[in-house]
Amino acid sequence: MKLTRKEEIVIVAAKLFKEKGYSAVSMRDIAQQMDIKAASLYNHIKGKQEILSSLVLHVAEKFTNSTQSITSQDGTALQRLKKLIEVHIDITVHHADAIAALNNDWMHLDGQDLLDFIAMRDQYEENFRSIIKQGIQTQQIKAKEPEVILFSILSTLRTLYLWNEKRGKLEVNVLKKELVSVLISGIV
Amino acid sequence: MKLTRKEEIVIVAAKLFKEKGYSAVSMRDIAQQMDIKAASLYNHIKGKQEILSSLVLHVAEKFTNSTQSITSQDGTALQRLKKLIEVHIDITVHHADAIAALNNDWMHLDGQDLLDFIAMRDQYEENFRSIIKQGIQTQQIKAKEPEVILFSILSTLRTLYLWNEKRGKLEVNVLKKELVSVLISGIV
DNA sequence: TTACAAAACTAACGATTGTTAGTTACAATA
DNA sequence: TATTGTAACTAACAATCGTTAGTTTTGTAA
User: Fold this and answer.
1) Residues whose CB falls within 7 A of nucleic chain C?
2) Which of A14, A61, A127, B7 could cysteine-pair with A67, CB 3.0–4.6 Å?
3) What is the pLDDT of residues A167-188, one digit of tens each?
C-alpha cells in the first residue's frame, strides 16, 4: 500500500518526536529529514499541530476501540485482562513511535483535539478499571487496592514502546506470554 | 531549612517542566511564576541548562547511591528487591517533579552532564538486573526472561511519579506494601 | 505538445527564544 | 552615614520559531 505524502510526513515526524519531544522538533527538522524545505510541508499539512493530532488521535482511537470491544465480548475478568494485555502489545509493536507521542506529547494538543484525547484516555482507563474490579468481585483477582493494580499494569504497558526496541530477538508471541505471566502471576 | 534563591528557581522550574516538558517552558515562564523578570534569573543561575542538570543529576545520584548501597549489603535477592522497590517509592514521593524531568527531559542535557546521566542510569539498571539474575539462580524467582521482569518492575516504578498525585489518601507505607505485593506476587 | 495539478522552491513576516549589558533599589554592615 | 553585595530592573541582541505568499519545477493525462 502506497503512502500519501502526508502520511510520510507524519511517520518521519513521529520518529523525531520520539527522540526529542514535540516542542524540541522544528518544522525545519522534519523537512530536512525528508530532504525538502520547511515551507514545502505546508502543501500537505495545515501545520505542526495537525501532525501531532493525526499521530496521537489515530492511535488513541485504536486503543479505545479495542478495549471497548473486549469489554463488550463475554469472558471472565482474567480472560479479558489477558486479552487486553495482548492487544496492547500488538498495537505497541506496530505503532511504537506514535505511542511515544501519545505518552509524552498529548498535552501539546489544543482545542477540541485535546478534549477528544482526554475523553478517550479516560474511557480507556475506566474500561480497564472495571475489568479489574470485576475480577476482584468474582475473586479471580486478589482483593488488593484496585488502583494499585491498575496503575502497575497500565504503566508497564504504556512504557513498553521504549523497551520494544531492545526486545531484540524476543518474538512477539513469546513477549505476550511472558508479560501476561509476569503481570498476572508475579515473579515468585 | 531556608532555601537559596537558586533552589527556589529549580523547584519552580521543575513543576513547569513536569507540566509541559523542558523545551516548552521558557525562561520567561519560569520568571513569571516567580514574579520576577526573566533576566533576573541570571543573577542566580548560569542558564536554562543548569536548571535542568541540577534537577536531573541530583536525583539521579540519589537513585544510584541507594541501589549501590542495597547491592553491597547482604540479603537474599527477594529481600533486596523489596528494599529496592521501597527506596524507589520513598525517593519518588519526595522528588516527584524532579523525577518527571529525569524521565522525560534527560535527553536535553548536554556535554558531560548527559554522559554522566547515562552512566548513572546504566549502572542503576545493571544493579537491578543483577539482583533479578541472582534471584533466578537461587530459584527465589521463577526462571522467566529476566529482561521482561526487569522491564516490568522498572517501568512501574519509573511511572510512579505520575500516579502519586492521585494516590490521595493512600498512605506511603500502605502503598509500599501493596506495590511490593503486586510486583512480586502478582494479582491472582 | 499542451494543459493542469501536485509538490517543490525562495524570500520573508512577526513572534518568541535564551541570553547579555548596564542600571537601579534595597538591606545589612562598617 | 557611607559602603557593599544582593537581587531586582529595562532594553536589546542574534537566532530560531511556525507560517504565508508568490513562483518555479515536475510528472501525468488529454
Assistant:
1) A 5, 31, 35-40, 43-44; B 25-29, 38-39, 42, 47-49
2) A127
3) 777 899 999 999 999 999 998 8
